[in-house]
Amino acid sequence: xxxxxxxxxxxxxxxxxxxxxNGVVPLETFEGRTKERQVLKQIIExxxxxxxxxxxxxxxxxxxxxxxxxxxxxKDNYFTTLKEVDCQPNQSTSExxxxxxxxxxxxxxxxxxxxxxxxxxxIQPIYDSCINNNGAAKFSYAYLEDILRxxxxxxxxxxLNGIIIHANNLENFVQEGDVKFKKFLSAARDLxxxxxxxxxxxxxxxxxxxFYSDSKVKTVVSSATKIDELTLSEVKAIVxxxxxxxxxxxxxxxxxxxxxxxxxxHEAHEGNIREVLSALDxxxxxxxRGVKQDITITPDIARKTLRNYVEKxxxxxxxxxxxxxxxxxxxxxxxxxxSEALNIIPQNTSSYLKELKNKDFIxxxxxxxxKKIYIAKFKAIxxxxxxxxxxxxxxxxxxx
Length: 400
Ligand SMILES: Nc1ncnc2c1ncn2[C@@H]1O[C@H](COP(=O)(O)OP(=O)(O)OP(=O)(O)O)[C@@H](O)[C@H]1O
Ligand SMILES: [Mg+2]
Known about the structure:
There is one protein chain. The chain is an alpha/beta fold. It has 3 domains: 4-17 and 230-311, no CATH class; 33-226, Rossmann fold (3-Layer(aba) Sandwich); 316-399, Arc Repressor Mutant, subunit A (Orthogonal Bundle). The chain has helices spanning 34-46, 62-74, 93-110, 117-131, 141-157, 170-175, 178-192, 205-213, 215-218, 232-246, 259-268, 273-286, 299-314, 319-330, 335-342, 346-358, 390-399, and strands spanning 50-55, 79-80, 85-86, 163-168, 197-203, 223-226, 333-334, 362-368, 371-376. Strands 1, 2, 3, 4, 5 and 6 form a 6-stranded parallel β-sheet that branches. Strands 7-9-8 form a 3-stranded antiparallel β-sheet. The two termini are 32 Å apart. Residues 16-18, 29-33, 56, 58-64, 238, 273-274, 277 line the site of adenosine-5'-triphosphate.
């Protein structure tokens, strides 16, 4: 176990969750995305209502971006919920409205915005129903829509400019099949036309693309913003900000990782911030240490540590499981593609896939009708790091 205090830090700065100080995420720990934020800010400020899509690969920083945009808009006199609204699989439009109303109510309550007591009153019956676990069940869609409209009106009456709703993880929703999601969307079109509401829907590309497949919904989309991988200097700045946030004032601070290590991992993980942070985390926590605890991890130590870490994890795998993994590392694939290429019966491929999935080496990227497409997860990349000597070498050739 690493003692972070040895580095002069309160806690682990590499944990791939937002930095938190006294229960809040400090705005200054966010880095970059200036242009993307400007686009959203301008739309929200110039329109009475809007529907904005934000998309990108897993772990690039979509949720953080949505939260940052919303937090910044608080200063411009907008209302937003404390937490983002999570899209649930199989959700109906009514359930979605109830979720939004619940978040609005609890935000007003927790932040003690006494000027919005009237809004709370409007939502009260729905909030009570949620507390009793009845959710949307007993309300008609027309009733819920009316409540949402009244809430929007009341928020404006209280002098605020509008409400920003951040609906997160849209892919959860779409995974259940886009037929249901399309039904949801066409029913939700009226919501997107309601004054005072600015929606930010966040998900992967496939999920946000669904908005364009409905000819009516398509016409109300205000913007679509792609979130790209962060640049090397942005990732370095994020790491520095994280050190700063957790620095213990009275202690000398030592960097747990060298600048070169961040560069090496930024390249290996193609700029994916979640993956870079996780790699730094595992490298620091698992590096061999002597008496000196506060060592600074160099690229060589990081490569060796990560490689050893992942190799330990694959030791129990059978040669066939490894073959399947190797195949998926090279390219994402379905069960039948793998079975055919490696000459394995599909039933066995399923069990190899299950093992790899349980050990977090692969993930289901998406379902296309009955086809499931699997991709390698980030730690599989560490198998490519070569280490001098013996057995390791032969494995590295195997994965090259
Ligand atoms: N621009 C940024 N500035 C500072 N930290 C960031 C930034 N973007 C992301 N992070 C950090 O990187 C981590 C991953 O980001 P985030 O959860 O936003 O990614 P995501 O794209 O929503 O991932 P997922 O696809 O898993 O939902 C978080 O810990 C977050 O704090
Ligand atoms: Mg996210």
